[in-house]
Amino acid sequence: MSKRMIAALAALAVSGGAPGAASAQEVKIGLILPYTGPGAELSPNMDRAIDLYQKLDAAQIKPFKLTIIKRDSKAPNGAAAKVDTQELLTQEKVDVIAGYIYSPDAIASAPVITAGKRLAVIMNAGTAFITNLSPYYVRTSFTLWQSSYVMGEQAAKYLHAKTAVVAYTDYPPGKDALDAFKYAFEHNGGKVIDAIPAGGPGATPDFTPFFQRAKDEHPNVLFVFVPAGDQATAVVKTYAALGMKAAGIQLTGTGDIVPDNMLQGMGDSAIGLITVHHYNADLDNPQNKAFIAAWKKAYGADATPDFTSVGAWDGIAAIVHALHATKGKIDDGAAAVKSLEGWKFASPQGPIEIDPQTRDIVMNEYLDQVYKGSDGKLHEKVLATFHNVKDQCKALAIGPCAPKK
Amino acid sequence: MNAVADIAGIVLGGLAAGTVLFIVSVGLSVTMGLMGFVNLAHGAFAMFGGYLIVLAMNRAQYGFAAALALGFFGTAALSVVLERFLYRRLYRAGELDQVLFTIGLIFIFIAGITIVIGPEHQTLQLPAALSGQLNLGFIAYRTYSIFLIVIGFLIALGIWLTFERTRIGGQIRATVDNRRMAESLGIDVDRLFTITFAFGSGMAGLGGGLGAEFLGLDPQYPLEYLVYFLIVVSVGGLGSVIGVYYAALILGVLNFALTLYLPKGGTIFIYALTILMLLARPRGLSGRKEQ
């Protein structure tokens, strides 16, 4: 062994023995998002939010230094995400895992997360039962049950609809959206007359045949869930092109069909749409005003964050909180998770909290309607606010959230 | 509404989707028939043209017709460059080499578009005259679908007339039937290749833009629809415009009806039918006979 190597080893031993003593303690965050494939357009929204948090709230992060190690989850089927998770935990030895845009990514990675015993913050994936799959999962995004349940309730109460057709992307969160909407709508006197599986998350289908079928059934409302992104624009345009509005069918959905960053591209077809979601860029609260202003300053006047950005923003805030609460020992997964149980945060979407029982987010849901503002652009106005909405799938313990027998 | 209107809706929706497939695939059929070249990257030309059209409208404020012309000629020009420098070297290569080359080209296009334009979906903004509903008397249907069906019919008719009634059409038919003989009669086959390749690619580009309303437009486009383009060409028959037109319309209507009635995986029947069809008529609906 050469002298230089011995010196290097000695230096390593010293620096490893006294973390954060002289320089900032480095914390490695493994970030898993689809950088290629059909979800690639969603990743920049989240990357930008994470960069922005580090820039704006640098004082909050001190004395720690966040190192983000990015991995590509590719197609929304979980295969690559699982490999990424394993590689990040065993090779890169990250302290925390974060990300997961698509539910199959988080579902497939759950056993690896459990074995790796590190905190994993879900920043987007919204299938309700995911947090049951590993005790190290904490979610800062949403569940489809939160928005779809409220939408089902309001379709009956606010829109006075009697019948509904549901069209959903055929994978776990789509099934959640269907179940939640149907449960709430039918408990409030409505009837779901048809449920149409409309393709998978991988590619944007031509929605014409699905919506044609819905139109021929003459429901009062058409409730749609698709993963935000490309598919949302296609949904709104097809709804308009088939003349469903004139036929008296109101399009509703989760906020996934009107993502803030795509709203302007939808044109006037989007005006009047009614959705339920936990975030829209027009929300009137000081955190959101500051968030939007900072976003436009950093990324241009035409750039708009959307709910995926907020999920990432809150996720990084959660990780920073856990860092301080564990005094830097965030690699102790159990302690990190414990520090986040009951954590409260003033998010751009309004006040949020992590439910200590389920490790899932508790937040406000907003009944929104799209309108054209005096500036000629499309905006969303809040028709009603529902405070501290919990995930009803786990609260009611039904379907895939029921305790295993 | 009644059953007649429902069925009319299916037929019109399917014909419109089929027309898009026809416009994109017709070039593939002709170039495969003419040159025996397996150009899997044909969909990449469609995507390129689609991007030209949509970006010209959204970013450079082109009108719809001007953007379509740009898409056609822009894609044709690109294809001539690629044909001269790359494709030409592989005309005499084995089929596996051609497949590998064109699949590679697809990935280059996907990565290129992702880097230069971005991974996000591009939206076609239709002119006001083409959006909305058109009242046909017995049913009100999407104006754009009807516009597409008419355009597709005119294109099919135009290409068919060119093939059957003009000198260059005769030369193309002669070359498809027997290349050596055509060459020895003094037909400049190289020039013919370039012209048809450019035209076929231009049509694909046009189809990419016209069809963006149905097929969408993002960097994954050439892989997403490759199978459909190949089905249309193999069922229609290589080098046959009319065969490809029928095949595309049949595929469009069947796919639409199956998706509507059996939204969960009804489309597998398309593949089953394709296999049966090719077992019964290996050269397609009206493929030209083997020499």
Key phrases:
heterodimer; A: 405 residues; alpha/beta; Rossmann fold; nine-stranded mixed sheet; five-stranded parallel sheet; 15 helices; 40% helix; B: 291 residues; mainly alpha; ABC transporter involved in vitamin B12 uptake, BtuC; two-stranded antiparallel sheet; 72% helix; globular
Walk me through this protein's architecture.
- The complex is a heterodimer of chains A (405) and B (291).
- Chain A has 15 helices and 14 strands.
- Chain A has 405 residues and is of the alpha/beta class.
- In chain A, helix 2 (43-56) packs across helix 12 and helix 7 packs parallel to helix 8.
- In chain A, the strands form two sheets. In chain A, strands 6, 7, 8, 9, 10, 11, 12, 13 and 14 form a nine-stranded mixed beta sheet that branches. Chain A has a five-stranded parallel beta sheet with strand order 2-1-3-4-5, with helices on both faces.
- Chain B has 13 helices and two strands, in the order ααααββααααααααα.
- Chain B has a two-stranded antiparallel sheet with strand order 1-2.
- The chains are: A alpha/beta (405), B mainly alpha (291).
- Chains A and B meet through helix 9 and helix 10 of A and helix 1, helix 9 and helix 12 of B.
Largest sheet of chain A: 9 strands, mixed
Structural class estimated from helices and strands of chain B: mainly alpha
User: In CATH's first tier, which class of the largest domain in chain A applies?
Assistant: Alpha Beta
What share of residues of chain B is helical?
over 70%
Could you give the distance between the termini of chain B?
A: 53 Å
Structural class of chain A: alpha/beta
Question: Rg of chain B to the nearest angstrom?
Answer: 19 Å
Q: Which outline of chain B best applies?
A: globular
Number of helices of chain A: 15
Q: Can you tell me the CATH topology of chain B? A: ABC transporter involved in vitamin B12 uptake, BtuC
CATH architecture of chain B: Orthogonal Bundle
CATH architecture of the largest domain in chain A: 3-Layer(aba) Sandwich
- Give the ordered list of helices and strands of chain B: HHHHEEHHHHHHHHH
From the structure provided, what is the oligomeric state, counting identical versus distinct chains? heterodimer
Q: Which whole number gives the mean pLDDT of chain B?
A: 88
Q: How would you describe the shape of chain A?
A: globular
Number of separate helices of chain B: 13
Helix content of chain A: 40-55%
Strand segment count of chain B = 2
